[in-house]
Amino acid sequence: MKRFARPLLAAVCLSALSAYAQKTVTIITVNNPDMIELKKLSPQFEQKNPDIKLDWVIVEENVLRQKVTTDLSQGSGQYDLVFIGLYDTPIFAKQGWLASFDNLPADYDVDDVFKSIRDGLSYDGKLYALPFYGESSMLMYRKDLFDAKGLKMPDQPTYEDLRKFADALTDKSKGIYGITLRGQPGWGENMAFLDTLVNTFGGTWFDEKWHPTIDSPEWKSAIGYYIDLMKKDGPPGATSNGFNENLTLMTSGKAAMWIDATVAGGMLEGKDSQVAGKMGYAPAPIEKTPNGSHWLWSWAFGLPKKAKQPDAAVKFAAWATSKEYIEAVAKDEGWSSVPPGTRKSTYDNPEYKKAPFAATTLQAMQSADPTNPCIKKVPYIGIQFVGIPEFQAIGTVVGQNMAGALAGKMSLDQALKISQQAAERAMIQGGYSK
């Protein structure tokens, strides 16, 4: 027995040393399908990097924003990678809460990433987040239902077209709603869509002197349209519906149209979708102006300054946003399901070009202009957000009030009035206006 003791002891020591040396990277992300797929495929990364263990915190969007903002502002270092976007990244970077991605591997090919996305995730000339996917917004519709009613989608639909289509397609006796839209309150939930609606109806968040304009005729017209449309042709309980809930309504065949993130295209055409092959894709509708009628966004990996395992975190973030990872998803789920909107090479790929939503997505992303979001001149950058720190709180409060109006808990006039008052207080406190 003695002659086995030394090798056994050495093996035990080696195992203990390996476990001790393993670095745990804690990642907090939103619970969207693309991120669930990332977690599913992440063992491929761990197998290639046995010294790195991934620990996932997957939450819904509003919870994510709250947890990330709290962690970064307090510098607690609870997460090694955080999911953030075009709104958060430059603001958090300016605060000194993020580390920049300066030494990416040569094969990462950062120039392959769309410039609009790189610019939005940069601050002071440095890249502070790596884009996992990029998106704009578009109108998704059931071609089979349109054909059955003899309807034809225009190359550029208007919101008047949308109303007529929704009225014609609603068949509540069969459990089919003509339209589904975000109703769940939050600056990145219902307000993401409603911002684009207000923009194209000619409205703004602020005038050139940073005075809030929520009580304007344009806001009343836009939100009034939304409430009327949803009450007549939308699903019940809409204030509980965010991106994922509306996705479920569409993939289960219960809604005829949906305006939301272009990333949804891959999910609507996915293996588990009941409407795959039946969908059509069109630009987001317009009303008075095309300015700001469709958004620009990216979910991206940010590296907290206080991350406990920064080197390992960067290594994983680079893999998860690489061409290699996109090919891994294509192998697992098919090319239509790969993370969209980040790399030119994806849209140059003949297999990806076959996806029925690819061309519409690319056109929407290339035409979205965060520097010119409204028909009137405004002092801010951003289409479905305003690029100032105060907007997160303002947008959340306004989102709650708009949901209240949709649910009938308050009148539209009341919702706009108290939203205007809340925004005025926030801008005075922030030193923007007197």
In summary, what is this structure?
By secondary structure, the protein is an alpha+beta fold. It is 45% helix and 13% strand.
> What is the H/E string?
HEHHEHEHEHEEEEHHHHHEHEEHHHHHHH
List how many beta strands DSSP finds: 11
Give the CATH architecture of the largest domain. Answer: 3-Layer(aba) Sandwich
CATH class of the largest domain, named Alpha Beta
Number of domains: 2
Globular, elongated, flat, extended or rod-shaped: what is the shape? Answer: globular
Residue stretches low in confidence (pLDDT < 50, at least 5 long) are 14-19
Number of helical regions: 19
Name of the CATH homologous superfamily of the largest domain: Periplasmic binding protein-like II
Gyration radius, in Å: 23 Å
Walkthrough of the structure:
The chain is of the alpha+beta class and 434 residues long. Helix content is 45%, strand content 13%. It has helices spanning 2-21, 33-41, 43-48, 61-74, 88-94, 115-120, 143-149, 159-169, 190-200, 217-233, 243-251, 264-268, 310-320, 323-333, 344-348, 350-353, 358-367, 391-406, 412-429, and strands spanning 23-30, 52-59, 81-84, 98-99, 122-123, 126-127, 129-135, 137-142, 257-261, 279-283, 297-304. The longest helix has 20 residues, at 2-21. Mean pLDDT is 94; it is low at 14-19.
